[in-house]
UniProtKB/TrEMBL annotation, chains A, B:
Name this protein carries in UniProt: Transcriptional regulator, ROK family
Family per similarity comment: Belongs to the ROK (NagC/XylR) family.
Pfam families in UniProt: MarR_2, ROK
Domain HTH marR-type: 27-79
Stored InterPro entries: ATPase_NBD, HTH_MarR-typ, ROK, WH-like_DNA-bd_sf, WH_DNA-bd_sf
Region (Disordered): 1-20
Coiled coil: none
MF (Gene Ontology): DNA-binding transcription factor activity
CDD domains: ASKHA_ATPase_ROK_BsXylR-like
Length: 405, 405
């Protein structure tokens, strides 16, 4: 029987891991093990990461030297035998900021390097890219003031509802009206810290891996709805990005032949039926004017609202059947604004999913609502910042050691 | 920016590579490098695999000892400097057999360990599992006789149009009518060699990686049609199997709401429109009785045939849009019986694909017809046998060395 490991080989293009990428991986691995298990000793980190004693020792020494991790006040964590040093992420090491840029809103969160939330805030957004950056800049200042924070900002991660290519260029953000934008350098010029940018749904998917309900799941799909609808695919434990970096365009699956016109130029796309704006527009058609998705959830007793929620559940369940038939995931997580109405969609969603999915694949999958809620994308920004900051500092460390050598 | 490598880490479940799995990978890697580059020296194998000199040396010594690789007659492959030994897969090492089991046919191929075809043959199949095994057993004897072959059969790989779970159990093969079958032990009992079994499309996808057009492609989707329609997903250079091992059920995407009844119990599945049997049935409805897909291809000038091929192209293009929107592949390969009519489907297929796919993802993907043709699944069997044989012999080698130690 073929094993996934060896198939990577048979595909003829093994991922060549050089010593630098292995060092980077080991560093990230040790950091996250300590983040999720504060107070661990080096020995415990070895067990948690599967790395040998010498490797853990080198990584720990380097992280300590950079002030990212430190000894805890209580030093002995072992009941018997020689006392061991309990380690933890250094509180003094600085903070991270995560943000979600949407046409009408900017949502931000500040955390410690360990991902503990210090403050969050939501402000008005803008479709004008310069204006959006200015708003974000002021927002971050206010956020940090509110948190009483004067530690160094080690990184800012921003999730954007758009298609990013493999080089990190924003190709198209239809709902923001941005196209071919060098958004990262523009942000970095205005924000006084390293900036990391990614598609909002990809960012949120990684946040679910790091901070949410998917920590131990190898195959899951994250579905989120804000201005549009996006999907993040974590397959065999890795975020799958596709050839151009555009994988997971769940919102643009054609689910109604010749259906509603979509901003992308096609017809019948899923997001023209299940995005917040589409739901509000459909209710408007039926004579119900509601301001946002929270109002929809509150008005669930209204028969017209019930009718629209049933339609949304049916369309979403049908679209998810394609994902399940193709990807045989263990878990589908509904996040973003979809999380607000997720429980109300379940009856028709589950019916449509069951109707269109092969039985053994249906039995493998479960549906959950994101526990990160509206903070999923901002926390995805934290994940981006954490990752960027951990991997860029290894590059700097390598450059230092090369200069020395 | 997140890197795929580090994301595997952040998903919290790093793939722990122990020394045994690394040895297995190195062994497979060296063997395939030599298979694709016969006459290579150890030094060249090092360059091709990215492995260091000492590792290559150990693997080569082991493979030589087992009689799998040997020195070539001409020993010097280097123009200047010290002469180097040219290596090659040993012709004496034995042969492999690959087979495809279908309700009406069994197709077989015999190759060298290097994958060079010695003979192929197609015989009648059976829906009765015992009868099918007997037919296969006799067929293999005849195949080897025809090839004038008396070298040892090192492995037999069989592709089956069914759902295999992660443990290699056949859960369901609707078109064969087999369910919950321990097919591998049954085959091994009757065939005098180690047997490896997998879903036919997964096997064919790996064959495309090893022997076909996908040797240098990291993200591709293999679509095949025989009695049903299946999909193999190679993502980030690995065959993606999903949680239960059922990923890639392209044939059961619902593409016509309330459409034709499918053998799976659902309605409107893709395969009820584009499998060989469905195409022949649709032609029958229109008053054209044709025996098989080759006859359909020959009758392409007939307006009724043209109409049905246009319908098939439209349905297939629509279904492929889901795959492209979700997975952003670089390449889609049409194989099996679909390969026979692929060029005839292209006009409507491409139109439907373009109509339902987001532009940047459409631009990333190209469509090709499998060069392996009807031998794709049997060659997939060869890939299974090769893989199984290479990895099981490392286990044996380890057991030997443990007994010694």
């Amino acid at each position: 029987m073929l094993q996934p490991d060896s198939v990577e080989q048979t595909a003829g293009m093994p991922t060549k891991m050089n010593s630098s990428s292995i060092r980077r991986l080991n560093r990230v691995r040790v950091f996250h093990a300590l983040r999720q298990n504060p107070g661990s000793s080096q020995r415990e980190l070895g067990r948690l990461t599967g790395l040998d004693k010498a490797t853990v020792s080198v990584v720990v020494a380097q992280l300590q030297q950079e002030g990212l991790i430190e000894r805890m006040a209580s030093t002995s964590v072992r009941r018997v035998g020689r006392p061991e040093t309990a380690l933890t992420i250094a509180a003094s090491a600085g903070v991270l900021v995560g943000a979600r840029l949407e046409p009408k809103t900017i949502r931000m969160v500040a955390t410690t390097l360990a991902g503990e939330i210090l403050a969050h805030m939501q402000i008005d957004g803008s479709r004008n890219v310069r204006r959006a950056i200015t708003l974000l800049q002021k927002g971050i200042q206010e956020l940090l003031t509110q948190a009483g924070e004067n530690r160094e900002v080690r990184g800012i991660g921003v999730g954007i509802p758009g298609m990013m290519n493999r080089e990190g260029r924003l190709v198209l953000a239809p709902n923001l009206g941005w196209r071919n934008s060098e958004i990262r350098p523009m942000l970095e010029e205005n924000l006084n810290a390293p900036v990391y940018v990614d598609n909002d749904t990809n960012a949120a998917s990684v946040a679910e891996c790091l901070f949410g309900i998917c920590r131990t799941v190898r195959n899951f799909i994250f579905i989120t709805g804000h201005s549009g609808v996006g999907g993040g695919l974590v397959l065999d434990g890795r975020l799958y990005r596709g050839t151009g970096g555009f994988a997971g365009e769940v919102g643009h699956l054609s689910i109604v032949p010749g259906g509603r016109a979509c901003g992308c130029g096609k017809r019948g796309c899923l997001e023209t039926y299940v995005s917040e704006a589409s739901i509000l527009a459909r209710l408007e058609e039926l004579g119900r004017t509601l301001p946002d998705i929270w109002a929809v959830a509150e008005a669930q007793g209204d028969p017209k609202v019930r009718q629209v929620l049933d339609e949304v559940g049916t369309h979403l369940g049908f679209a998810l059947s394609h994902l399940v038939n193709l990807m045989n995931p263990e878990l589908i997580v509904l996040g973003g604004n979809l999380a607000v109405i997720a429980q109300l969609l379940m009856p028709t969603l589950k019916r449509a999913l069951a109707e269109h999915t092969l039985r053994p694949l249906l039995e493998d999958v479960r549906l959950e609502v994101s526990p990160l809620g509206a903070d999923a994308v901002p926390m995805g920004g934290i994940a981006l910042a954490l990752e960027g900051f951990l991997t860029s500092s290894v590059v700097m460390a390598e450059e230092r050691s090369q200069r020395r050598g």
